[in-house]
Each structure stands twice: as structure tokens, then as C-alpha cells.
Predict the structure of Cyclic nucleotide-binding protein.
Amino acid sequence: MKHLLLQYMTRLTSLSNEEQQAILDEILVEEYSKGTVLLRQGGVPGYCYFVLKGCVRQHAVDVMGRDITSNFYTEEQAISIFNAHKPDKTSEYTLTCLEDCTLVVGPLDTEKAMYTKHTQLETMTRQMIEQSFGQMQEEFAAFIASSPEERLKALLHKRPALISRVPQHQLASYLGITPESLSRIKKRIHREPAEPGL
């Protein structure tokens, strides 16, 4: 599985083969069973993750007691923790493995030491996070401006495999609609002629 990280290092850094191997030897890769909670809402995160295999759900219980899904992380996506602005450093969401997962695990308390030792690794990580964050901003802007049907069509276009990988009520929550509405929209889309590129 570490070959994916090797591809990133080859593309985004000028590290020698020896330096790349040294980093790979230090990186921790862990396997987690379906249903494992990596981080609980209100807990203090100790790790960041990179998905090599599997699907991780980001969700939170709102003030009304509803469990709201805000993201799904799948292969080759980084799960970054942005909570440095909070005095208590607690997480506003929970991370749960929806499938058996293989993840690169980065302890936050040793992150700075790792970057000091391997400066190009920090550059690579920043580039990956910036790319991911930019994509999330674009998707969020499109999400706000679109109808539920347009949101589902965009998801079918960008991440078609996700539809069959996650429970439908969680997918509906992610799209901001009820499971019943999702079912109706899926049936309506299914009856439509296929659009180019979908």
C-alpha cells in the first residue's frame, strides 16, 4: 500500500530513493475494522490520516440530536485535522470507518519533528492539503448553489462508486435531503436519458 505514497513523493518532491525509503520506513500504516471510531466528537485528536484503502465517514450530532454526515473520505484522500484555532482543541465531528480500512496514521505530536527531519515531506503534505482544501471549497460553493437533484448528479459524476459504498440514509444526510427524497430523485435520474460524461 505504501506504493501510493511513493508515487506522491516521486511526483511532488525531489527526494532521492534513499530519502524516500527512509520516510516510508518511518510512516505508520494501520488496518482498522469496519465500525471503528477514529475520533469522537468532543474528543481531542491525536492523529491525522491518509486513506490507502476503505471509506471513512465524517459526521456530527447537531443541537437537534440529528446525526449529520459532512464528508466521506476514500482512497488517496487525506483526513486533516483543522482545530488549532480552538482553545480546547476538541473535534467538532466524529470519524468512523464505514469499511475495513488501511490508513497511514500520522501522530500529531511527532508531526513537527518529522517535518523538521524531512523538509520536503512538509512541502508535499502542504501541497496535498491545499489541493484537497481547494477542491472542498469548490464543491461546497457548488453544493450551496445547487438543488438536491443537481447535488446527486454531481456526486454520480465525480464519485460514482460512493453511491454503492455508503448507507443510503448517510448519503441522503450528506446531500442535505431525506432518504425518501433521495430515493425519488434516484428513480427520476434513472429514467432520464444518460448525459454525456455520466
In short: The radius of gyration is 19 Å. The domain at 3-114 is CATH 2.60.120.10 (Jelly Rolls). DSSP finds eight helices and eight strands in the chain.
